[in-house]
Every structure is written in C-alpha cells, then in structure tokens.
Amino acid sequence: MVKEDSFARNNKQWNARTACIVPHDNIYYGKCLIGGALACGSTHLLITPLDVTKCNMQVDPMKYRNLIGSLKTIIHEEGSRAIWKGWEPTVLGYSPQGALKFGLYEVFKDALSNLVGYENSQKYRELIWLSGAAASEFCGCLALCPMEMIKVKVQTSVPGTFPTALVPATIEMNNNRNVTRFPYGSIVPLWSRQIPYTVTKFYFFEKAVQLLYTHVFTEPKTSYSKTTQLGITFTAGYAAGIVCAIVSHPGDSIVSLMAKPNYRGKSIKEITRDFGLLNLCTKGLGTRIIMIGTIAALQWWIYDTFKAAMGMGTTGGK
To answer: Where in the cell is it found (predicted)?
Structure first.
C-alpha cells in the first residue's frame, strides 16, 4: 500500500497519498477511474454470450441445463444475434460501475489509512482493503442498477414479449415502474451480489499478489519486467475471481429471478423459499465461475496495463 521506511514510521505528518512511489493526487485518481471504466466495460461486453446463457440457466434450469447445450438452444430458437442481447445496457452500466469501483477503492484506501495513521494502516491493512472495496462497490451499484435491470429483463424475457433494443427497452421499463420497479427495484439484491463479490475479489487479489511477491517472486517488485508483473496480476485476478463467483452467486441468481413474471413483486425471502436455497447457490454456478474468473483476471490485467502505461505501476506488492 505504501513505502515502508524509517521516515514514514517516525513522521507524524505521514500521508498515504504522498507516501507511495507515485503520489496519489487527483490526476492519479482520475486515471484510476478511467482504467476501471475500461476494464469493466470491455470485459463485461466480451462475455455477453456467457451472461445471456447464465441468466437463462438461472431462471429456467429445467430447460437450460448446461453451458454448451443452452447456447445451442438459444441460437436455435432465437438466432445467433440473441446471445448478444443486452450488450448496450451492459456497456452503459458496467463502465461507470467499474470507474467507481476501481477509482474509489484507491480513494477510500488512502482516506482510511490517513484516518487510522501509519502504524494502524500497516497493522490493519487487510481490513482497510475490505472496507475500501465495500464502500466503493456500494457507490458503483448506484451507477449500475438501472442498466442492470434493463439488461436482465432483455436477456431473460421470452422472445417477442419485451424489446431487445436499448431505447425501447428503457421506455418499456420506465412506463411500467409499478411492475418493473425500475430504476432501483433491484438495488438491495444487487448490493447483496456485488458487495460480497467485490470485497472478495479485491481482498483475495491483494492477498494473492502479496503472497506471490513474498514467496515466489522474492526480488524487489521493480526488478521484474512489466510483462512479469502483469502476468502476476492476471494469475492473482483469476484466483480471486473463482472465489468471488461462488460467494456472489446466490445474489446474482436472485437478481435474475426478479426479472421473471412469476417472481415479480416477491421479496428475497419468498424467492429463496420458492426457488430453493440449493438452486440459488448452484444453478448456473459452473458457467459463472468460468465467466467471473475470466472477467476478474482480465479486469485486473486491463486495469494494471492501463496504470503501467500511465506510469502508475501495477497494483499490490509485499
């Protein structure tokens, strides 16, 4: 998080924003916002076909039983373009969400470190990671929720019953607010999915990077090439993605189910009772692990590639 030296330990005016190799000024935070938007918007767009399949496996597990078979069914019944349904709200939702998630994570880490002081920031570093991730994702979800509701509705509706283009779908959602609960009817289940997901992703990423630089790549981080550092980023990101896919899957299932007519207006407790807790935790999980593992690894890689290109260095270390 910061350079550890005798000056920092003894300096009462220590500041997390200026104690790093690259000062964390407002320009630095602005670049982090841009990097986060690029990382999340591009990766979620890339895996739209997986997302369409996963959502349908969650809401209709009897029809959509496995990844390959479900993809074939969707293409056979709706055409090859159907697996890209919802790509517009995906980009418009996850780009600002990613900007806030990654950018504010850096802001909150520094703010919390300054709040508790140097010694406590080192002693409770992992708690700062967790708190910063939770706070940044809380904000990110506010930017994501309207577009996520449109995306899920587009991807899971029976063909011909709901518009698939962005503008008509948005108008339809807005005109039927009493039914769709647009734009923030899914904010609580979205928080229940995204906050555990992001906390897990950021914590296990930071921890994995720390372990790799401590036990495997034991030379100073700056002695390794950017290619090696970004390889470490990708490896740590994929490991973190697998864990957070499992943690966040029940919340993701609930968000998908809320778009179905037979669950409309029901509480989270009622949906859990009707669909079954085991189904919430397992239906579509294999696909989600592949999807989220790939997303997490690519997001961290794109984010750190952007940071490295901007002269900001890669994330994490000993």
So the answer is: Mitochondrion inner membrane
Please report which confidence band the pLDDT of residue 33 belongs to, taking 50, 70 and 90 as the band edges.
very high
- Rounded to whole angstroms, how far apart are CA atoms 304 and 241? 16
Predicted confidence band of residue 12 (pLDDT cuts 50, 70, 90): low
CA–CA separation, 246 vs 200, rounded Å? 10
Question: Is the predicted pLDDT of residue 1 greater than 50, yes or no?
Answer: no
* CA dihedral for 100, 106, 108, 111, sign (positive or negative): negative
Q: Which domains does the chain have, with CATH numbers?
A: 24-310 (1.50.40.10)
pLDDT, tens digit (0-9, with 9 covering 90-100), for 170-193: 999 999 999 889 999 999 989 988
Question: Tokens at residue 56, please?
Answer: 């349908």
How many other CB atoms sit within 10 Å of the CB of residue 129? 23
CA dist., res. 287 & res. 256, Å (int): 14
Instruction: Give the C-alpha separation, 266 to 277, whole Å.
Output: 15
Model confidence over 51-85: pLDDT tens digits?
899 888 877 888 888 889 999 999 999 999 999 99
Amino acid at 70: S
The average confidence (pLDDT) of the chain is 90
| Cβ pair 147, 100 in contact under 8 A | no
**Cα maximum dimension of the chain:** 68
Provide the sign of the torsion angle of the four alpha carbons 190, 195, 200, 201, taken in this order: positive
In angstroms, rounded to a whole number, what is the distance separating the alpha carbons of residues 222 and 106? 20
pLDDT at 4: 46
Sign of CA dihedral 36, 42, 43, 44: positive
Q: Fill in the DSSP letter of residue 264.
A: T
Measure the N-to-C terminal CA separation of the chain; round to a whole number of Å: 9
The answer to whether the Cα torsion of 180, 185, 187, 188 is positive or negative is negative
State both tokens at 147: 């577009």
